[in-house]
Amino acid sequence: MGSVTRAVFGELPSGGGTVEKFRLQSDLLRVDIISWGCTITAIEVKDRQGRASDVVLGFADLEGYLQKQPYFGAVVGRVANRIAKGTFKVDGKEYHLALNKEPNSLHGGVRGFDKVLWTPRVLSNGVQFSRVSPDGEEGYPGELKVWVTYTLDGGELMVNYRAQASQATPVNLTNHSYFNLAGQGSPNIYDHEVTMEADTYLPVDETLIPTGEVAPVQGTAFDLRKPVELGKHLQDFHLNGFDHNFCLKGSKEKHFCARVRHAASGRVLEVYTTQPGVQFYTGNFLDGTLKGKSGAVYPKHSGFCLETQNWPDAVNQPHFPPVLLRPGEEYDHTTWFKFSVA
Ligand code: BGC
Question: For the whole model, what pTM was predicted?
Answer without folding.
Answer: 0.97
